[in-house]
Amino acid sequence: MRNLRQCWRGERQVTRANIPSGNALPALLLWLACATAPVTFAAEKVSLIKIDGAIGPATATYIARSIEEARSQNAQCLIIQLNTPGGLLDSTQKIVQSFLASPVPVVIYVAPTGATATSAGCFITIAASVAAMAPATTIGAAHPVSIGGLPMGGEPKQDETMKSKIENFAVSYIEAIAGKRQRNVEWAKSAVKESVSISADKALQLKVVDLIANDMPDLLKQLNGRVVDGKLLKTAGAEASEIVMSPSERVLQMFSHPEVMLILMLIAFYGIIAEVTTPGAILPGVAGAIALVLALYMMSILPVNVTGLVLIALALALFIFDIYAPTHGVLTVGGIISFFLGLLLLFNSGDPLFRLSLRYIIPATLVTAAFFIFVIGKGVRAQFLPVKVGKETLIGKTVTALTSIDSRSGRIFVEGEYWNAVSDTPIEKDGQAEIAAVLGLTVKLKPKGK
Question: What does 312-379 look like in DSSP terms, one character per residue?
Answer without folding.
Answer: HHHHHHHHHHHHHS--TTHHHHHHHHHHHHHHHTSB-TT-TTS---HHHHHHHHHHHHHIIIIIIHHH
